[in-house]
Amino acid sequence: MNKVKGYLAISILILSWCALYWLTGSRTPWNSFSSIRHEEGVTVYLGDIPTQNYDRMGFTKAVVRYTSAENGWIVGTERGELFLFNHEGRQLWKRNLGIGKLISLCITNDGKLAVVGEQSPEGNLYGVNIHTGDILWQYKSSDYVGSDVSQRSYPSVVHIVADKDSNIYANTYRFLMRKDGVRAYTGRMLAVSKEGKMLWQFPKNEAIDSWINWCDVNDKNNRVVISTSAYDFRTDMTYKDTMYFIDKNDGRFLNSTFVPSVPPFDNTVMRGSPNFSADGEVLAASCSDGRGFLFDKQGKILWQRTISQPTQIDGAWINASGRDGFATPYGIIFTTINTYNRENWQLPTPMEHPGNNSIFVFNRDGTFRYQYRADGTMEELSFVDSLAVCAVGRNVRTHDYGAHGALVIDLRNGQKRAFFHTEGPLQAIAVNRDGSQIAGIEAPAVTPQGKIIGAYRLHIWKNKF
Amino acid sequence: MSMRQLWEGADGKDWLKKLNGRTKLLFIFFFAILMITVDNPRTLFYLFTLTLLLHVLAGTSIYKWKVLAVLLLLGLWGSMFSQALFFAQTPRTPLFTIIASDYGFLGSLTGGLYVYREGIIYGAVQGLRAAGMLALGLLVCWSSDPRQLLQALLAWRLSPQLAFMLVTAIRFLPVLAAETGEVIIALQLRSDSKNGRTAIVRHLPYIIKPLLARCLRRAQTLALSVVSRGFFLASANKQKEEWLLREQVCCWGLFLFTLIIVSSKILYLLSEQGLYFGFLRKIYDWTIMFL
Q1: B16-69: per-residue pLDDT in tens?
Q2: Which residues of B touch A (CB under 8 A)?
Q3: Residues A256-303: tens digit of each pLDDT
Q4: Is residue B284 part of a domain?
Q5: Beta-sheet pairing, A457-462 with A41-45
Q6: How many interchain CB pairs under 8 A, A with B?
Q7: Domain residues for B241?
Q8: In what order do the strands lie in the sheet with A253-257?
């Protein structure tokens, strides 16, 4: 009997050896739990991060861009890590850039330089060699907009764009809620050459006393535009206008545009726009109050449309904020996000605004073509040819978790071409040059029932359309 | 095979028994460093397989294979099962549910009990580390005369007292096993209980005192014999076993290999902490892939 038991043990050991051979089969890095291949593509885990509540206002961030020079994906995370992955999800390099959250990313025209912005006590702006991962240069935005760690007022590089010569234009800002309840804003634009030489700052000798969330540059008209996005408006503010136009070569102020606010808002706020058309002739912008604008390159309003009318219900203003604006060859595009109660943004709203979570497409002459409504917020859009690729994130009103994922829309007719579902909300997205690969970053979230859905991971999908 | 024979170093093929104690100790030392350094499951699996191959080459007897199999299986599957059930990191993917979170009192108490895919892999990695070292340790233990190890330690100018105590500790294991067996037999005979596992378990609480007494007696005899033979005299330590050049070359080779592996890993870990150098990208890449 003992003999049988002994041989049985040896047999089980041999079977275990075979099982271990199978279990340890993946050659991808163990410490990132390996990438998981599936029919639609590949998924790569990006590490543990604090899981946020599903309904909260600010949410987990991440950035991803395609780099043609390396034919891969640059990914920046809230953990302060920057990665280069290939299409198979293999990590080509990884850099830990410190304690900051990486919140903005731009790849230069030649695809060789990644410019990364972070939110941290220093608010660094990094120029990183995409091939090697080396930091070529860096600037501390705290040197330009200050920092107050005791008040948790950290500088951030919120948005970065590059022109065809690979010069970089970055918005840096810092926000502070004073004890008397007044919001203090400090913003500045930095222009840096690809070699890391500071070209100019705007304003030169002071800071903008408003929130500056967005900027764009155009090589045809040599202009840089900065939009302001402070929700409150004070008469003592120096920078009251909605958009400021600057000469991209020397940082000279050219002109500004003031867009009057509409009730119940105190100010016209542009959070994710304006953006120039490729020919530099027009500028598309969407405002938080639900208006979409097309401007000429000087900032003169060509037309405006209401895409989401704020509505008063039981004394409370309900609206779906406008956010992005794009002038593409396939139409002028505006987007809206979730429905909010203006009286208290944190309180749940019992209904959805009919214009929320949508993209609205107009012809260049302002005629309406179509609205495509998603089931969750379109967190980010990326374009390739006639396709718009959207990262669909949370819907804090319906809690429709099936809405999360990457949505591919044909801009010619507004038809859905593909949808790649993710368990958690998709927070960032990018597409390669021919549209055959899409990369998106999913974030984990705690549902109101206390369940964790999703994880912090990168998805690379094969887009067959 | 008696309990004492099982743990004594008298088994194995000649080539292994003839190896210098220093070679064996260095090999086990570098191998331990490799097992700690490597995180990649497949590489760990290959290292573990290497230890099993060494057992095959060493001609480990079938009886010892059975013991080895039981010990390895307990370590490997124990680690995998426990991690599969209690894996706390994310992401974790439930493969199947043992207790659903909404399954009455048990469900609410445990919050659900699941078998997590990532936990199995994590447990396998930890289990492979332990199993690899256990297999190699047993190989050295089963194929080495304690005198070999003693001479190796003395050759490295370790204090004779310390070296003697270390080797005695190793030597003591089979002795302790044999003594325990004898005490249990004595207890069984006195109580007139039958043979079998239940009888052994019943006597376990009573073996400490007689075992301790026998150990003390044996230690006293050992101390007297060591002193009377003049073991710690300087002249007694002059006899050194020859360490063949080819064994030394092998040890240097293994040292260099271990150094390369550890350096690659350290460079990669430093790169994660901000000390990143672009020209080392190939090394980082290699480290991620295989280590």
Answers
A1: 778 888 888 899 999 999 999 998 888 999 999 999 999 999 888 888 888 889
A2: 39-42, 44-45, 48-49, 52, 62-63, 65-66, 68-70, 72-73, 76-77, 89-91, 118, 120-121, 124-125, 128, 271-274, 276-279, 281, 284-285, 288-290
A3: 999 998 888 888 889 899 999 999 999 999 998 889 999 999 999 999
A4: no
A5: antiparallel
A6: 104
A7: 160-251
A8: A214-218, A223-227, A243-247, A253-257
